[in-house]
Amino acid sequence: MIDKKRAEQIIQKFEEKTVLVVGDLILDRYLWGDVERISPEAPVPVVEVKKETVNPGGASNVAWNISSLGSKVYMAGVIGEDQNGKILEKLLVEKGIIPLNIKDKNRPTTEKTRIIAVSQQLLRIDRENKQKINSDLSDRLVKQLEKVIDEVDCIIISDYGKGVITEDLMDYLKKTEKPLFVDPKPSNFFLYKNVTTMTPNRKEAYECVKADRDTPLEEVGKRIMEELEIENLLITLGPEGMALFDKNKVIKIPAKAKKVFDVTGAGDTVISVLALSKISGASWEESASLANYAAGYVVGEIGTATVDRKKLLELIP
């Protein structure tokens, strides 16, 4: 799909680019431990916690991916006026991300706590408020975006369905006429009309057009493109790789993962590399190929992971 020399030409341009990420911020918390016995109280494992770590998750993991690849990146979303919000903002700055977030005193900062033992995730605990942000918060967010919109090369919309992506916000983003790359939530499908491209996984793609599981993937992709009036679409297929759609054809891209430990954040990596590659002069096929190599790497790591330019280039044979 892409050779090393061409990949290097594209990847070296990443540091010249500026990206705006808009979406649902999540604090990813990990409790790492060992399991040596079953609880006498219930048939569940007892995890003896050895360490605790925190990482940017959701849309902020997309921003972390962009930063890791050497580009300038702004992160715009909503956090709570709480300790997790402070932790997340501090993490963003530490990872080279410029925060443009606004605070909502009426909602907590979304937190996902994962309990991991024996190299696998045993349980996830979510703390969140998924209500749509009100017009006042949306207006405040747009004012933050207006400060930087002229300098960004593209916008990534990372929709985790936690309430940040609204019709008013999408209307504003479309008016900017910047390339819009969307990692979608099927419940907001109607908001993505006329964006540049979208990167649903197979389950999300079928849910977007309410297709039953017997419907051919090619038909699902075609329906999404017709209903949203978009010319490109990338559907991720897990162990089967990816399917890249344009008006005339579908290109199947085989998966590159040698091992799969954790798919957490793989979609964030896909849209990050896809968007950066495209605005750095790559074709859609080259962009998808680079995104596929990057995703194959991060699913081999436990927990939220990113890839940098050096590692990405090493992945290309």
Intertermini distance: 11 Å
Kindly state the mean pLDDT as a whole number? 92
Strand element count? 15
List the helices and strands in order.
Answer: HEEEHEEHEEEEHEHEEHHEEEHHH
The best one-word shape is globular
Low-confidence stretches: none
The Rg value, from CA coordinates, equals 19 Å
- Strand adjacency order, main sheet: 6-4-1-10-11-12
Largest sheet: 6 strands, parallel
* Helix fraction bin: 25-40%
Strand content: 25-35%
Number of helices: 10
Specify the structural class. alpha/beta
Topology:
Layout: H1 4-11, E1 18-23, E2 25-38, E3 45-58, H2 59-68, E4 72-76, E5 78-80, H3 83-94, E6 98-99, E7 102-104, E8 111-117, E9 120-127, H4 135-146, E10 154-158, H5 167-175, E11 180-183, E12 197-198, H6 202-208, H7 217-228, E13 233-236, E14 242-245, E15 250-253, H8 266-279, H9 284-298, H10 309-315
Parallel strand pairs: 1-4, 1-10, 2-8, 4-6, 5-7, 10-11, 11-12
Antiparallel strand pairs: 2-3, 8-9, 13-14, 14-15
Helix pairs in contact: 2-8, 6-7, 8-9
